[in-house]
Structures
1.
Amino acid sequence: MVGAPGAFDETLEGLYQLALNGAKVEIRVVLHAMTIPRLRQLASFIYRRLPFVEHVALMGLEPMGFAKRNREKLWIDPASYVDALSDVVGFLANRKMQVSIYNLQLCILPRSLWPFARQSISEWKNKFAAPCGGCVVRDHCAGFFASANDDWRSQHLKPLTLEDLSDVVA
Ligand code: SF4
C-alpha cells in the first residue's frame, strides 16, 4: 500500500519483534478501494501468520493527508462493501480473534455487525450530518470525521426510527 520497497517485510519483522517482547499488538486495516478486494486474504493472513494479535480494527477511511490527495483511487461507498466486511468480521470472530469496526455508521451496517461497531472517532473531530438529529441510534453511532464532507459520506445513510428497531424495542 505505501509503495516503499521492503515495507511489508519490515513491518512483519517489527510485528514479530513486538510479540517476542511481549507487547500487545493491534492491527488496524483501513477500508478503501485498494484493501477491500483482498480483505478476506488479509484476514486469513493475520489469523495464520499473526496469531498473537490481540485486536483487529477494520476502519472506515478518514479523509486526511494521503487519503484526501488520492480520493479517486481510494474512495468507495462503505455501503458497497458491507458484505465483504461481514464476511471478514465473521471469519475473525469465529476464530476467537477480537475484531472491531471503527468509523462506520450504524445505518449502513447490517444489524449483525452492530455489536462490533465502536464509537471510535475522537470527540474533538467527531460530527454528525443534519439528518442524524432525528435518528434514534445517534447516541450509539460513530458519526463522521469533521473532515468528511458529502463527498466522503455514504449515499445510503438513513436516520433510523423506533419502527426500524421494532424487533428489539418491543
Ligand atoms: S442517520 Fe446518522 S446517527 Fe443515525 S445511524 Fe446514520 S449516521 Fe448514525
Note: Residues 23-165 form one domain.
2.
Amino acid sequence: MRFAILMGLAATAWGEAPDAENGRHLFARYGCYQCHQLEAQGAAATGPRLGPRPIPFANFTKYVRRPTGQMPPYTAKVVKDSELADIYAFLESLPAPPPVKDIPLLNQ
Ligand code: HEC
C-alpha cells in the first residue's frame, strides 16, 4: 500500500509511470534485440545480457547515450528519456532464471 503511494508520487513527479509492455515493444522497434536478443538474454557474439537485473538506471542511460565499445549510440533525438525508462522497466520485469539447484542436469 505504502509502496503503491510512493509509486504514485513518483509517477506524478516524473510524468507518466514507466510502461514495461511498451518497453518490450521499443526494445524490438529500436533494434536492441538484434544484439541483445528478444528477452535481453544476450549472446556472446553480439551483446551482453541486460536483464532481469539491469545496471542502475543512471548508468544504463549514460551507456546507451554514449557507449564506449561496439554498441552504436542512441541520442535523445532517436530514443526519448521516457522511452529509455520504459525499456528499463521491461528489463526489470523479465523473470529471473531458476536457481541452479532446481535444474536437474546441473545437480547430477
Ligand atoms: C549493434 C549491436 C547493438 C545494438 C543494436 C544495441 N546494443 Fe547495447 N550493447 C552492444 C554491445 C556489443 C555491448 C557491450 C559493450 C560494447 O561493446 O559497447 C552493449 C552494451 C549495452 C549496455 C551496457 C551493459 C552493461 O552491463 O554495461 C546497455 C545498457 C545496452 N547495451 C543497452 C542497449 C539498448 C537499450 C539498446 C537499444 C536502444 C541497445 N543496447 C542496442 C551491442 C548493441
Note: The first helix runs from residue 2 to 13.
3.
Amino acid sequence: MRPCNVKAYVFNALLFCCVATLAQNAIAAPATTHKLAIALRDKALSSDQAYSLLTSLTTEVGPRLAGTDGDRAGVEWARRNLISLGFQNVRTPEVLVPRWIRGEASFEVLLPYPQPMVTLALGGSIGTSDQGLSAPIVMVQDISALKALPPGAVSGKIVFFNTRTERTRDGSGYGKAVSSRVEGPSIAAAAGAVGVVVRSISTSNLRFAHTGTLSYNISAPRIPALAISNPDANALERQVQTGQLVSVRLRVTARDLPQTRSANVIGEILGTDLAQEIIVIGGHLDSWDPGVGAQDDGAGVVIAIAAAKLIASMPVKPRRTIRVVLFANEEFGLSGAARYPADEGNKAIDQHVFAMEADLGDGPVWRLDAQVAPAQWSLIKDIHRVVKSLDVKLGTNTARGGADISPLRSRGVPVIAPQLDASTYFDLHHTLNDTLEQVSADDLKQSVAVYAVALYMAAMADGPIERLPNDPAAR
Ligand SMILES: [Zn+2]
C-alpha cells in the first residue's frame, strides 16, 4: 500500500473539520460528497480499527466452523461489537446449519515406498471404518480425465485428483481447479471408486493441507474424501510415475450430527432522507476449523464493520441506510445467504439498492468492478476518481459479486465489487496457516478505505437507483 500524500492529508483533515459544522442531516452537493469521500478515504488509511477487531476475533473466538461453540462465540462477539460501536437495530436472526464433526484423518502410502502424508478430510466427508480403507490409486488430472477412462478403470480403487491450482490475482485459478474437490468424489464414486484423495486446491508449496466442502450427489454412493498438501501430492505423483502399483491407506473419523442453530448478525447505520433504501455490505462469520479464519473471512467481517463505522462518524450522514450483514455458514452451504432474503421478504428486498461483499482476504483492492444499470456507471467512475490514488484500476460492469450476496444479485440488486488481490490468498485459505500473522495491517487499511468510499458515495448518490433484471443463474 502506498502512503497518502501528507499535504493532501492535512488539507482533507481540515476539510473534515469544516464540514463537521454542517447540519447533521444536510444533503451534500456532488462536489461536497467528493471532498467528503476523500476525507473518509484518508481517515480510513490512518485507522487501525479493522486490524484491532481482527486481532480480537482471532484471539478471543478462533475457529468458527458452522454449528460449533466457536461459531456461537463468533455470533456473540459480532453482536457485542456492533452494539458497542454504536450500530443500530443490531439483531441475530436464527439460521439452521449443518453440523459436521471433522474428527481425525490420516493418509499413508503403503506401496511402493511407504510413508505418511499431511492430510485433512474434505468438509462433509463420511468416515471410514476404524481400520481405514486400503486400495490402489488411480491418478487423474481432473474430472474430464476421469470421465475419459474406460469403464471399470477405477472400480474398487481410490481416485487421486492431481489438479494443480494456478496463482492468479483475481482468484480465477481456484475457481477452475475446485470442481475436483467439490464434485470429484461423487463422480469417482459413480464410476466405482471407494475413496478419493485430492491435491490441495492451494497455490502453496508448504506442507499444509487445504480443506473445503465437497458436495455429495444423491445418485452416487458416499465415499470418504480427503486432501493432501501440495508437496505430498508431488511425492505421490512421483511414486505413480515410477510405473509401479501405488497403494494407499486413508482413515477418517468424520461424522454428521443433526443440523443445529447459528445466526446471521445484522447492524445498521441509519440513513437520513432515503433511510428506507438499503445498501448491504457483507462478509461471513463462519470459518473452516484448522486455522482461525483470519483471512477467510475474518478480514471481510472487519472490512465491513470498519467501513460502516467510519461512515457513521462522517459529518454528513449517509442518505441511505448501510446494513452490515455477517452471514452464517458460507463455507458449508451458504445457509445464512439463503436465509437472509427469506427473512426479509420480497418487499424489503425491493428496497435493497446495492450489495457489496468482502470475501477474498485482506486485499489490497486492485480493481473496482460492479454490475449496475447503465445509469449508475457514472457513480462507479466517481468512486474510482477518489480511490485511484490507492493503485485501484477501474474495472468492468460485469461483476457477479460474492457468494453471500448472490441471492440478492439474483433478485436484481446491483452490486459494487472492489476486487481484493488474491495473489497469495490461496496459499493459506482453508489451511492450518490461516492466522492473524498472515494478514497485512496496511493492506487491510487500504481495503477498508476503498470499501468505505464506495459505500459512502453509493449512500449519497442521487436516485433513483435502477435495479438489474432478475437473474436466477446468479444464485
Ligand atoms: Zn470465505
Note: The pocket of zinc ion is lined by residues 284, 296-297, 330, 359 (CB under 6 Å).
4.
Amino acid sequence: MPLTVLDTRPEVHEDPLDLMDEIDELKREKDAVILAHYYVDGEIQDIADFTGDSLKLARDAAATTSATIVFAGVHFMAESAKILNPAKTVLLPDLEAGCSLAESCPPDKLAAFQEELRTAGRDFVTVAYINTSAAVKSLCDWIVTSGNAREIIERLPQDKEILFVPDQHLGRYLEEVTGRKMILWPGACMVHEIFSVQDLLRAKRNNPGSVVIAHPECPRSILEHSEFIGGTEKMRKYVASLGEPTTFLVATEAAMIHPLKKAAPQHEYIPVPGIMTSSGETCACNRCPHMARNTLQKVRDCLKHGRPEIRWQPFFDKARDVLRRSLLE
Ligand code: SF4
C-alpha cells in the first residue's frame, strides 16, 4: 500500500446531519457516487449510493458512469474499483484502511512459493480471494469472493491442483463444499478468526431458539455450530427470506447488523462476541479496525480535496484481465 503521512490530529466532532448535507452537495458538484461496504458504519451506508459485499461493489464500480467513485471500504476494494473502471477518479477516505487478510499474503512471498511449486513439477492454478492486493491478483489465475467462490472452483479442470490464497478458513470451507482438495495459504482475517466458541455456545444457551449465521472466513470451530454459512450478501438475502421473527446470532463484522436490520427489521440480531479479555470483559474484536477508519468527515474531506486517490500502477493491467474474467464475465 502506498505510504502516506499520518495525520495524528484528533478529528473535531461535527454534526453528522451537517456532514451528510455537505456530502450530498459535494457529490452533485463533483459528479460522484459513494460505494460503501457492509462493514463500514451504518451512517456511511445510509448516505451511500450503493452498498454491498466485495462482489456487488466491484460490479457497481465497473458499471458507474459518474466521474468519481468514493470507496468507503478498504484499500484492496478501491484498487479493484480503479482496475475495473480506469477512467474514473477513485478516492479512498483513508489510505491507511488496509486488511489483515490481504497483508497475510505479500506478492513476493506468493511469487516465491509459486516458483517452488513449479520447480517441484506441480501443475496448478492459483485462485485468490478478492481480499488481496492488486499485486497479488496480478499473479493469480482466478479471483473469487465468498459469493462466487464455489461456482468458480467447481468449474476448474480436475487435472489441475488449486493453490488457494490467502484465507485458510474460507479455503477449508470450500474444500468441504466442493470436494476439491487445495493447497491452502496460511492467512486469516483478524476479525473472523477471533470469534470464541465458548461465547457462541453461551449466547446460544442464553437465547433459546436462536439461529447462528456465520461468514465462511470464520474458523471451522465456529462454522460447525452455525445453521447458515454465507458471505454478507447471502446473509442479507437469507434473513430477508424468513418472515417469522427470529433471533440471529451473527458471526461476522459487527457493522453487518445495520444492513441486516434494514433488510429484515422483524428479526433480532445479536453480534457474536469475541474473546474475553483478562479483565473479564468481551473485547470489541468483531469490529474491523480498518473499516472503522472510514468516517463521515473523511468521506466529506476526500470529496472536497479529491484525495487520497488510487492511481494506476503498472501491475494493474494483468490484475484487470483476471478480475474482469472472474467477476464480470
Ligand atoms: S474484516 Fe477482515 S477481511 Fe474484512 S477488511 Fe477487515 S481485516 Fe480484512
Note: The first helix runs from residue 16 to 30.
